[in-house]
UniProtKB/TrEMBL annotation:
Homotetramer. Cleaves 6-deoxy-6-sulfo-D-fructose 1-phosphate (SFP) to form dihydroxyacetone phosphate (DHAP) and 3-sulfolactaldehyde (SLA). PANTHER family: SULFOFRUCTOSEPHOSPHATE ALDOLASE. This is Sulfofructosephosphate aldolase. It comes from the Bacteria. One of its GO terms (molecular function) is lyase activity. Keywords: Carbohydrate metabolism, Lyase, Schiff base. Its EC number is 4.1.2.57. The lineage of its organism: Bacteria, Pseudomonadati, Pseudomonadota, Gammaproteobacteria, Enterobacterales. SUPFAM superfamilies: Aldolase. It catalyses: 6-deoxy-6-sulfo-D-fructose 1-phosphate = (2S)-3-sulfolactaldehyde + dihydroxyacetone phosphate. The active site is at K193 (schiff-base intermediate with substrate). It comes from Phytobacter palmae.
Length: 291
């Protein structure tokens, strides 16, 4: 059986310039915050995601979609450009304690063989990391996920995201990101998607040091995500992370969040989001050329 590799989701330069539109309830909240009529209907999210795929995928090396709102529609409408790979989120979000994603399990509704038939090249798994939860359970989940990917010839992408411990008030996000990398950075996945240290704030040297520390603990290629980062700081964050050893980004909010809730979505995606994504792709290529 053919086995996809990281080359199938990179730019010709070897760097990753990947777009995420797999946000679920978080995206609904963004529409609500932007003044969309309440409650925000599923169709609003689906339409936005499909439009984003059609308009932005020509400028991305891969696009990450979710089964809940857009995978079927994206496939049926041929929304992903030929030069862009499709990644499908294989994580099931379980709400609780007043937040949309309190825990995560592998979504067994995602059929890896069907994803491959539909042209998908990779699956992605969100892993919530809390210092007071059992590391063994996380490692077993990642191992099972990697096995699903690899036995079906798909690339395995894990996304460890740190959360405060359930039973303690103290939380050092920066240390948690490092601890998660120590635990999961050698877990057999193909690609590690990580939160940018310090939310991309601080001096270049401070960020570089933090990113280099991260790089020491991740034994696979890694990319940064943009959640929590001011979109104006994201291009600099990509540059600094890549100086430290990252190979690009897999991000959504830094590209399209500013157009959520605006009229003429398609035009706004073209005029505002396309140039952002193009610029980020250029940074990735430029940083890869220095290696």
């Amino acid at each position: 059986m053919s086995q996809y590799t990281l080359k199938d989701i990179t730019r010709p330069s070897g760097g990753f310039s990947m777009l995420a539109v797999d946000q679920r309830e978080a995206m609904r909240l963004m529409f609500a915050a932007a003044g969309a009529p309440q409650p925000v209907a599923d169709q609003v999210l689906t339409d936005f995601k499909v439009n984003a795929a059609k308009i932005l995928s020509p400028y991305a090396s891969a696009i990450l979609v979710d089964q809940q709102f857009c995978y079927r529609q994206v496939v049926e409408q041929n929304a992903v450009a030929q030069n862009c790979a499709m990644i499908v989120a294989a994580d099931k979000f379980i709400p609780g304690n007043g937040i949309p994603v309190d825990s995560v399990i592998i979504d067994k509704q995602v059929d890896a063989q069907a994803v491959k038939r539909d042209g998908g090249k990779a699956l992605k798994l969100l892993v919530l990391w809390r210092s007071d939860e059992d590391p063994q359970q996380r490692l077993e989940m990642v191992k099972e996920f990697n096995q699903i990917c690899h036995t079906n010839g798909l690339v395995s992408i894990i996304e460890p995201v740190v959360r405060p411990p359930r039973r303690s008030a103290s939380f050092d996000r920066e240390q948690a990101i490092i601890d998660a990398a120590k635990e999961l950075g050698d877990s057999g996945a193909d690609l590690y998607k990580v939160e940018m240290p310090l939310f991309g704030k601080g001096s270049q040297q401070t960020l570089l040091n933090a990113s280099q520390r991260l790089n020491e603990h991740i034994s696979m290629p890694w990319v940064i995500l943009s959640s929590g980062i001011d979109e104006k700081l994201f291009p600099r964050a990509v540059r600094i992370a890549m100086t430290a050893g990252a190979s690009g980004f897999l991000a959504g909010r830094a590209v399209w969040s500013s157009v959520i809730g605006l009229p003429d979505t398609e035009m706004m995606l073209r005029d505002i989001s396309v140039p952002k994504l193009q610029r980020l792709g250029e940074i990735v290529d430029e940083m890869m050329a220095r290696r």
